[in-house]
């Protein structure tokens, strides 16, 4: 799977992210995507071919492998990486929407006018979009961690499994290739995923704290603006409300 396309898209998200968001992107690419592409894919490259059962009954080995591994770790992690990175594009799309509004506003009112001080500044609708993307990413991370544990009953891969699914003639022993190495990679990927969840939660609290501080400053500024002439104050409020989308 080619991850360069995804990396190119997410690089545009970096400039709109907070410090926690930039750390999250670094963790995703260095400790997850890079490890996934360089090492983990090779460990599971011929997993089914090396899955060995002590029987020569036709179809028994394939059925037992499908029973114990309904979905490969690699494919599950690939889906997880795609799902947890896609919500970040919501921020990019919202910024693109703001830039288009800014362009139309300048065409209508002149090149010297501005609707936004900074189209990438996280306030108003963009703040909510960014916060929503964090909640969605966190939900996906927790869901996939639960699925991984639910499907395999544990993050540790056993050396031997026993299978009596038809067409196996009786209870047969099956052996997993490189179980220790796969267990190490599984714990590593789970740890990186947990770290990403922690970073997302920290960023959520950070955004809410910054929002509360800004609202307090806006309340103080609004109290002082009452001393302004009514028409001018009304015009400034309307322009501010328009730019918060």
From TrEMBL:
- Which GO biological process categories is it annotated with? cell-cell signaling
What membrane topology does the UniProt entry give? Multi-pass membrane protein
* GO CC terms, sorted: connexin complex
Report the residue ranges that make up the Connexin N-terminal domain in this protein: 42-75
- From the record, give the transmembrane residue ranges: 21-40, 77-97, 127-152, 185-208
Coiled coil regions, renumbered to chain: none
> Which cellular compartments is it found in?
Cell junction, Gap junction; Cell membrane
Principal localisation: other
Give the superkingdom in one word. Answer: Eukaryota
Which keywords fit this entry according to its UniProt record?
A: Cell junction, Cell membrane, Gap junction, Membrane, Transmembrane, Transmembrane helix
Segments forming domain Connexin cysteine-rich: 140-207
Tell me the GO molecular function terms.
gap junction channel activity
User: What Gene3D superfamilies has UniProt attached to this entry?
Assistant: Gap junction channel protein cysteine-rich domain (1.20.1440.80)
Family (UniProt): Belongs to the connexin family.
| Function noted in UniProt | One gap junction consists of a cluster of closely packed pairs of transmembrane channels, the connexons, through which materials of low MW diffuse from one cell to a neighboring cell.
**Assembly and interaction partners:** A connexon is composed of a hexamer of connexins.
PANTHER family documented for this protein: CONNEXIN, GAP JUNCTION BETA-3 PROTEIN
Q: What is this protein's record name?
A: Gap junction protein
